[in-house]
Amino acid sequence: MNQQNYPQNIGYPVLPTSTLAIVSLVAGILSFVMLPVIGAIVAIWTGYEARKETRSVPPRATGDGLATAGIVLGWVHVGLFVVGLCCIIIYFGFIASILASSVHH
After folding, report:
1. Helix (H, G, I), strand (E, B), or coil: what is residue 88?
2. Rounded to an integer, what distance in angstroms lies between the CA atom of residue 29 and that of residue 69?
3. Cys bridge to 27: 43, 73, 81, 86, which one at CB 3.0-4.6 A?
């Protein structure tokens, strides 16, 4: 008999990609394109929730990199929003000081 011994496939089960991780990445991208502040908040929140899924023992899903990218995009957008808001406040403060000084002269 010519019988071949094929190796048995004893691999790890394939885990699904976390839906929250995908939502986090998409919301992070959309925060720069369409949904400025809301997209960033959603990206941060869903990213941290997705990381809980992917880093649990045993892991329930994959997609830790997607979640991390969504978190980073969300925080970058929040930082840019804060810097922009500070620039607007400084700008209007500068304009108000110019107007106030021109009224007194």
Report:
1. helix
2. 10
3. 43
Place of tokens 């700008």: 91
Q: What is the DSSP string of 36-60?
A: HHHHHHHHHHHHHHHHHHHTSSS-S
Q: Each residue's pLDDT tens digit in the chain (105 positions)?
A: 566 766 666 667 788 999 999 999 999 999 999 988 999 999 999 999 999 999 998 888 999 999 999 999 999 999 999 999 999 999 999 999 999 888 766
R_g (Cα) of the chain, nearest Å:
25
Distance CA 25, CA 48 (A): 11
